[in-house]
Amino acid sequence: MPVNAEKSSLVFKEGLLEKRSDGLLQLWKKKHCVLTEDGPHHGGGDTGKVKELHFANMKTVDCVERKGKYVYFTVVMTEGKEIDFRCPQDEGWNAEITLQMVQYKNRQAILAVKSTRQKQQLLVVQMPGQKTVRSSPNVA
Questions:
Q1: Long-range pairs for 72-76 at CB < 8 Å and ≥24 separation?
Q2: Which residue of 8, 18, 37, 118 has the smallest Cβ count within 10 Å?
Q3: Which GO terms describe its molecular function (predicted)?
Q4: Which domains does the chain have, with CATH numbers?
Q5: What is the spatial distance between Cα 56 and Cα 101, in angstroms, rounded to a whole number?
């Protein structure tokens, strides 16, 4: 898999996506997007500005609809903001974003469990009239 030289993270998918603007006209604007292990990144045309949507801030990929040659989908952020995208049906951006988001959330859950276990194993137990007992950490 290619690596993003800027941040040295794995690139799962790269190409064009269209994002609906927030303005009154809600125009579809083409964005060059890169899906990495941190989440999707898209550049803003001539400005070269890159917008990052971190998986940590994403709640779900929702409202997948197929119309004509496009797949329309909405990325829902944890704070409730919804960002609308579309792509040609055969490109599968929505599926790849969903898959990578689920894998990211699973990795985070595993890390949380490991962290909790390590904290529990490192607890110092002070028993009345006895020496301090410290449990040894298990390395997984």
A1: 73/97, 75/40
A2: 8
A3: phosphatidylinositol phosphate binding
A4: 11-108 (2.30.29.30)
A5: 9
